[in-house]
Amino acid sequence: MIWRYRIAFLGILFLFFLVVVRLFYWQVVKAQELSLIAQDQYGTTLKLTPERGEIRTSDNFPLATNKLSYLVFANPKEIKNAGETSALLSSVLGVDLSSVSADLSLDKFWVPVKSGVDSDTKQKLEAMNLAGIGFDSEYQRFYPEASMAAQLLGFVGKDDQGNDKGYFGLEGYYDRLLQGKAGTAVQINDAFGRPILAQANQATGEVDGSNLILSIDRSIQFLAEQKIKDGVQLYGATSGMVGIMDPKTGQILAMAAYPNFDPRDYSDYTDDLYKNPFISDLYEPGSTFKPLIMSSALDAKVVTPQTKCDICDKPVSVSGYDIHTWDDKYFPNTNMIDVIQHSDNTGMVFVAQKMGLDKTLDYLGKFGIGNTTGIDLQGEVSATLRPKNQWYAVDLATTAFGQGISVTPVELLDATAAIANDGVEMEPHVVSAIEDPDGNIVKIPPKTISTPIDSGTAKAMTEIMVNAVEKGEASWARLKGYRIAGKTGTASIPIQGHYDPTQTIASFVGFAPAENPKFVMLVILNRPTTSIYGSETAAPIFFDIAKSLLGYYGIPPDENN
Amino acid sequence: MKKPALIISSLIILVLVLSVVKIFISNQVATSGVILGKIEEEAANLKTENILLSEKLYTKSALTSIDSEAEKMGFVTPKTEFVLSGQMPVAFKQ
Fold first, then answer.
1. A222 reaches B (C-beta below 8 A)
2. Over the Cα atoms of chain A, what is R_g?
3. A550 and chain B: CB distance < 8 Å anywhere?
4. Is the ipTM reported for this complex over the cut 0.90?
5. Is A196 on the interface with B (CB under 8 A)?
6. Three-class SS of residue A401?
7. Kind and range of the H or E element at A176?
8. What is the pLDDT of residues A350-374, one digit of tens each?
9. Chain A, 527-546: which have a CB under 8 Å from a chain B CB?
10. Do A185 and A201 touch, CB atoms closer than 8 A?
């Protein structure tokens, strides 16, 4: 009988073994899968994508905001007539038929067909009642003013993980602030999949992006973009740019470049158009640099406006190089007012030699030359000034008239703004306030960088620049009835170690009204072909914009001027 | 001896009443999920509509759009400048 007990015992043991094996299968091998199914029955976990912050102009109009778009997806297993569905999707979405057919023939439950589909197209597809076709809503960057201020804004692309990321300009500089923080939400459902109120919507962690409120004036930006585009075309230049700033606060009122790109379709443009040339391009400023050197010399009291230049009667020889005036006309015993009026290179060499290298470098540093300005845009560069022991006599001489030294346009604009602002240089800024998702607004106060020259020197330099506008080469284009301080620039372009006399960067920098400036503006044309001179190309654009701006600010002309 | 019995019986009654109330409220709340779903759906629809209307408003009020519309309607850039130097009153006192 014992063997029967043993068989029964072994049988029961075997059954226990089978139960243990089965338990192991369900609780260990299939544990993760079952857990996911249970979670799916219990509720759904959603990733909450925060809404990216808006970028608004000073009148609260969004230059960059968000619009709803849709991802059209398909479940190929639910589609009955793949050929017909492919043809319909292809015609409505404007996608290649072979591409849609290939997607719908995949052995998958979910395939994306097209993203960025607008609501009208979505409604058309919904009306067709296509089986196996669904939609996911998503936010897409929307630019109501199209390509306005494109290089100032930058654009939103994708990072390595496929998440939105800002590149260049404001989108790049303020990316963290704009993008906010993603969160998750859990929705608990009953057996029929309906939401249960008791523990519904456990949303955590999601914070929408903050909005940026710019100092950019939309009307001025629009005007600047139109004028620089027209100017580039009229004067046959390869490109052009204009920057307008409030010298008292450092707030940028407009910054435009042409050609530019459309941030909606940024991938259709070449990479070189993405960067903002006003902060990223280094160039030799030419004569627009002269006011900085002259005001430094006046401030250091090495010259006065009436000081006579005793080397201005002929070309000046420095270390074996002959330095000429731009038109080879010479003015013996000319004073400092006339040196700026005639844009006299020999006169500026005289000033630089009076100053000496130490004082020149000291003042250039005070004006912020050789450093970034700190503007709140991604991509600002600067050319560091050479160490003192690497400067030769000819370098000092050429720097005096803006050759052999490189600056960015924003560097020159900001330094000139110091002359307009009683000698006080402000940090240029594009964002004037930040609005958090709760609607709280934090204003960004103006920041003083330095005081390179005193108030008296700034006033004297302003008068010299007003004289240059009224009697200099660009006087034909000046606005009658207004006192405008300014200076033309025609800079040669260094190409393979030499200056090409036929290719120039033409520019004009100035501010108005001279006694109480509302704006300082720099206009630059790259390689104009109708004329190489700033006085014949950049200056008329400057005065054209200035005329509209003065009217915009309600400043009437004075018949005494 | 009466007092503890009274307390105990009161507690039991309280527990029973609270249990019934909890069951009743849970029952009410649990079925409100459907209403909640509808409200959330409506809120989402209104938000979507708001976004779509904002998009249209921004597009229509963009300077680039106004400029091109104005050009189509025959507006031209003024050749002479007219400057309003100060705020004019709506009416003068006589």
1. yes
2. 34
3. yes
4. no
5. yes
6. coil
7. helix A175-179
8. 999 999 999 999 999 999 999 999 9
9. none
10. yes
Indicate the range of A341-345, A414-418, A456-460, A551-555 predicted with least confidence. Answer: A551-555
- Asked if A556 and B40 come within 8 Å (Cβ–Cβ), the reply is no
For A146-163, give the secondary structure using H, E and C: CCCCHHHHCEEEECCCCC
Per-domain boundaries in chain B: 28-63
Report whether A171 contacts A178 (CB < 8 A).
yes
Whether A46 has its CB under 8 Å from any CB of chain B: the answer is: no
Nearby residues of A116 by Cβ (< 8 Å), 6 or more positions away: A69, A71, A140
User: Which of the four pLDDT bands, split at 50, 70 and 90, describes residue A215?
Assistant: very high
CA of A547: which chain B residue's CA is closest?
Answer: B81
What's the gap in Å between the CA of A436 and the closest CA on chain B?
Answer: 19
Instruction: Note whether B81 contacts A61, CB cutoff 8 Å.
Output: no
pLDDT tens-digit readout, A529-559: 999 999 999 999 999 999 999 999 989 888 7
* Chain B residues near any Cβ of chain A (below 8 Å): 26, 29-30, 32-34, 36-37, 40, 48, 51-52, 54-55, 58-59, 61-64, 67, 81-86
Quote the CA–CA distance of A9 and B73 in Å, as a whole number.
100
Closest-approach residue (CA) in chain A for B38: A195
d(CA A415, CA A424): 9
Domains of chain A (ranges, CATH numbers):
62-144 (3.90.1310.10), 218-552 (3.40.710.10)
Closest alpha carbon to A453 in A325, A359, A326, A330? A359
pTM of the model: 0.83
B89 vs B94: CA distance, rounded Å: 13
Query: Which has more pLDDT, A3 or A504?
Result: A504
Q: Find chain A residues with C-beta within 8 A of B59's C-beta.
A: 144
| Cα A423 off chain centre by | 27
Q: Structure tokens of A165?
A: 């990321």
> What is residue B82's predicted lDDT score, i.e. its pLDDT?
65
Tokens of A304: 């006065």
What's the rounded Cα separation, in Å, for the pair A224 and B83?
A: 19
- Contact: A551, B82; criterion CB under 8 Å: yes
